[in-house]
Batch of 2 targets.
Target 1
Amino acid sequence: MVRPHHSTVYSCTVESFNDDYRLLLEQSGLGKRVADKQRVLIKPNLVEILAPPITTPVEVVEKIIDYLLEYIPPTAIIIGEGCGASEYDTSHVFAALGYTDLVEKYGIELIDLNSAKLRRRTLSSCSRWPEMYLPALLDEVFLLSLPQLKAHSLAKVTLTMKNMMGCAPPSHYKAGGAWKKAAFHTRLHEAIFELNRYRTPDYTLLDASVGMAQAHLWGPQCSPPVGRLAASFDPVAIDSYGTRLLKRRWQDVDHIVMADGILGTAMNYDLVDIE
C-alpha cells in the first residue's frame, strides 16, 4: 500500500488530550474514517506484563473506545494483541493490565492474536518474508494501532510499525527462541518492514506521554517526560516523528528508511500542533 506523499501528523500535549481527548481524534479525522467500518481492531502494545510506559495504558484505550462509540456500536470494536513472553499467554497480560475488566465494562470483544485463525499470504518481492501467516481478522478490520514511545536495543525504536509484531503467530515465528516471535530477530529491520508490507496500521495514536529512553523493556524513562500524544494515518510519518521525540534520526533507523516512500513518508509530512 502506497501512502500519500503529503501526510499529516497531529500532536498535542498530554494535558490538552486529558482536557478534551476528542479534539485530537476529531481533528485528525478518525471519526470520518471509522463511521462506515464494520469492525475496528484496537491494537495496543502489551508485549509483557509490565506497567506503562512500557505497555499501553488501559485508560488511553478507554478514551479511544468512548470516542469510537460515537460512530460505531460496541459490537464493532475489538481489542487484540499477541504478547511476546514465552512463560504465559496473552490472557494473563489482558487480566493483569486491566483489559479484561475494560471489555466487560463495554461489552466488546477481546482477542489473543497469538491464537487467532490464520491466513497465508505471499509477496514474491519480499526477500525476508516471501510467505507470511497472519490473523485472517486483519483483512476484515480497520486497524487502529496504539504504540508507546520507546527506544529499542536492537531496532533502535519501537513505534507503530514494530507494534505490528504482536500480530505474528508464535506457531510460525517463535523459531526455537526464548521469545514467542524470536524469528524476527534475524534481519530485524527487514523483517519489520516486510511485515508491514503485508499489513500496516490504518491509524496510529502514539502515546509519548513519558517515553522509554534506551530500551523497550528496561532502562530509564525519558527525563523530563516527553508529554505528548500524536496521531496519523501514515505509519511511516508517525514513526519518523516518534523517532524525533526520542532525539534520534529516522535516517538511522533502517526499517523506517526502507518504508519511506513505499508505506508512507518519513520526511514530507505536515506537523499540526493541537493545543
Target 2
Amino acid sequence: MKVATWNVNGIRARHQQFVDWASAEQPDVICLQELKSKLEQIPQICSIEGYNCYWHGAGAYSGVALIVRRSFASEVSFTHPEFDNETRIVEAQIEDTVFTSVYVPNGGKDFDAKIAFFNSLIGYAADVHRRGLKLVLCGDMNIARAEMDVHPKERKPRAIGQLPQERELFEKLLGQGLVDVGRTLYPEDENYFSWWAPWRNLRQRNIGWRLDYVLASAEIAKRAVSCPSQREVGTSDHAPVVATFA
C-alpha cells in the first residue's frame, strides 16, 4: 500500500505536475491540500485514469482532496468530520481503515482557531480508534514536531509552527494511537524537511521545516518501509511525502 500527501499550494498552477507525478508514482491513496480552486476551474484533475476523486474546495483558499486508486478500492464514500470548516478535512473509510486528508490552519491570522481545530483533530483520532477502526491521517499539520524538524538556520522559538504549545498538542495527537511514520523510519535524519520558504534558494539548499506528515495507527505503521519527502518534485513550496507499507 502506498499513501501520499502533498500540499500543492494552488492546483491550477500545478495540475500537470500533479498528473505526471501521480501517473509515475501510482499511490493507492493521494491526499491533497491547499487546492485554492473550485473543481469546475480544473475538472481534469478528477478524471485521472484509474482513480476515484473527491474534491472539497470552495475557491481561492484552502481546500482538500482525496484520490483513491480504483484497484485499491472500487467504491469509496467520502465524508467530513463535524468540525470541518474552510474545507480543511475529508475522510474515506475503506474496509476497517479511515484515510484522512487534513490541512491544519497556519495560525498566523487566528492562532486560537488553529488550536481549536487541532484539539478537534485529537478528539477525532481518538474517536476513530474508539470505534475499532484504523486511521491513516495525512496532510499539512503546520507544526514542526520537534527542533530537529526545522533547519538550524530557521529555528525561531517564538515562531508559530514551532511553539511549545503546538508541539505539545502534536504529541497529544500521537498519543491517540498514532505513529509518525517518517520520523520512525528516519529517527536521526536532520535533513528531512517538506516545506521551504520560497526565497534565497532555501529549497535548493534544503533549509526547511517538516510540516507534512503521514500518521498511522500502530498496526499499519509497523509495516512501513519508506516515507521519503520528494524535494525534487514540483514547484509548490511543499514536497510530496509518500509512505509505502508492506
